[in-house]
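DM from R.C. (forwarded with permission)

"hey, sorry to bug you on a friday — could you get me a structure for this? deadline for the figure draft is monday and I only need the backbone to look sensible"
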Amino acid sequence: MRLLADEHIPPAIVSALRGEGHDIAVVGDDIDLGAEDTVLLEYARDTDRLILSEDTNFRGADPDLDVEDQPGILACETAASPGEIAAAIRRIETFTDDLTGTVLYVPGDWL
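My reply, with the result:
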Protein backbone atom coordinates (compact mmCIF):
# COMPACT_ATOMS: atom_id res chain seq x y z
CA MET A 1 0.00 0.00 0.00
CA ARG A 2 1.24 3.49 -0.81
CA LEU A 3 0.84 5.85 2.15
CA LEU A 4 1.64 9.42 3.15
CA ALA A 5 2.32 9.62 6.89
CA ASP A 6 1.37 13.00 8.32
CA GLU A 7 3.90 14.70 10.58
CA HIS A 8 2.28 13.50 13.83
CA ILE A 9 2.53 9.82 12.96
CA PRO A 10 5.19 8.33 15.26
CA PRO A 11 8.32 6.94 13.59
CA ALA A 12 7.62 3.54 15.20
CA ILE A 13 4.37 3.28 13.22
CA VAL A 14 6.16 4.28 10.01
CA SER A 15 8.85 1.67 10.70
CA ALA A 16 6.29 -1.05 11.41
CA LEU A 17 4.47 -0.32 8.16
CA ARG A 18 7.68 -0.21 6.14
CA GLY A 19 8.63 -3.52 7.72
CA GLU A 20 5.46 -4.97 6.21
CA GLY A 21 6.47 -3.71 2.78
CA HIS A 22 4.37 -0.56 2.53
CA ASP A 23 5.71 2.35 0.47
CA ILE A 24 5.53 5.33 2.83
CA ALA A 25 6.28 8.97 2.15
CA VAL A 26 6.63 11.04 5.31
CA VAL A 27 5.79 14.66 5.97
CA GLY A 28 9.08 16.14 7.07
CA ASP A 29 11.03 14.06 4.58
CA ASP A 30 9.04 14.20 1.34
CA ILE A 31 6.95 17.30 2.16
CA ASP A 32 7.90 20.24 4.37
CA LEU A 33 6.85 20.09 8.03
CA GLY A 34 3.87 22.33 8.66
CA ALA A 35 2.61 22.05 5.08
CA GLU A 36 -1.04 22.95 4.64
CA ASP A 37 -3.54 20.09 4.48
CA THR A 38 -4.30 21.05 0.87
CA VAL A 39 -0.63 20.42 0.01
CA LEU A 40 -0.83 16.97 1.59
CA LEU A 41 -4.00 16.18 -0.35
CA GLU A 42 -2.42 17.33 -3.61
CA TYR A 43 0.71 15.27 -2.97
CA ALA A 44 -1.42 12.22 -2.10
CA ARG A 45 -3.45 12.62 -5.29
CA ASP A 46 -0.35 13.17 -7.46
CA THR A 47 1.49 10.16 -6.03
CA ASP A 48 -1.58 7.93 -5.48
CA ARG A 49 -1.07 7.58 -1.73
CA LEU A 50 -3.54 7.19 1.10
CA ILE A 51 -3.06 9.75 3.86
CA LEU A 52 -2.32 8.30 7.31
CA SER A 53 -3.12 11.05 9.81
CA GLU A 54 -4.61 11.76 13.19
CA ASP A 55 -5.60 15.27 11.99
CA THR A 56 -9.36 15.71 12.38
CA ASN A 57 -9.41 18.11 9.42
CA PHE A 58 -9.16 15.07 7.15
CA ARG A 59 -12.24 13.63 8.88
CA GLY A 60 -14.47 16.63 8.18
CA ALA A 61 -13.48 19.03 10.97
CA ASP A 62 -12.52 21.61 8.32
CA PRO A 63 -15.56 22.06 6.07
CA ASP A 64 -13.46 24.01 3.55
CA LEU A 65 -11.08 21.10 2.99
CA ASP A 66 -12.15 19.03 -0.02
CA VAL A 67 -11.45 15.43 0.96
CA GLU A 68 -13.86 13.92 -1.56
CA ASP A 69 -11.41 13.57 -4.45
CA GLN A 70 -8.50 11.79 -2.79
CA PRO A 71 -7.07 8.26 -2.74
CA GLY A 72 -8.29 7.66 0.82
CA ILE A 73 -7.74 8.73 4.41
CA LEU A 74 -6.68 6.38 7.18
CA ALA A 75 -7.61 8.19 10.38
CA CYS A 76 -4.91 6.95 12.72
CA GLU A 77 -5.25 6.55 16.47
CA THR A 78 -1.61 7.17 17.38
CA ALA A 79 -2.17 5.91 20.93
CA ALA A 80 -2.52 2.43 19.42
CA SER A 81 0.58 0.30 19.15
CA PRO A 82 2.48 0.15 15.86
CA GLY A 83 1.51 -3.53 15.63
CA GLU A 84 -2.19 -2.71 15.98
CA ILE A 85 -1.93 -0.06 13.25
CA ALA A 86 -0.02 -2.42 10.95
CA ALA A 87 -2.54 -5.23 11.53
CA ALA A 88 -5.48 -2.92 10.79
CA ILE A 89 -3.88 -1.72 7.56
CA ARG A 90 -3.11 -5.31 6.59
CA ARG A 91 -6.82 -6.17 7.03
CA ILE A 92 -7.87 -3.12 5.00
CA GLU A 93 -5.48 -4.07 2.22
CA THR A 94 -6.80 -7.64 2.23
CA PHE A 95 -10.43 -6.66 1.80
CA THR A 96 -10.33 -3.65 -0.52
CA ASP A 97 -8.22 -2.25 -3.31
CA ASP A 98 -9.96 1.10 -3.78
CA LEU A 99 -10.45 3.53 -0.92
CA THR A 100 -10.98 6.60 -3.10
CA GLY A 101 -12.93 9.25 -1.17
CA THR A 102 -13.11 7.02 1.90
CA VAL A 103 -12.14 7.69 5.51
CA LEU A 104 -11.37 4.60 7.60
CA TYR A 105 -10.29 4.56 11.22
CA VAL A 106 -7.21 2.56 12.20
CA PRO A 107 -6.99 0.50 14.18
CA GLY A 108 -10.81 0.85 14.36
CA ASP A 109 -13.29 -1.97 14.62
CA TRP A 110 -14.56 -1.64 11.05
CA LEU A 111 -14.12 -5.35 10.40
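R.C.: lifesaver. DSSP finds three helices and five strands in the chain.
me: no worries. The chain has one domain: 2-106.
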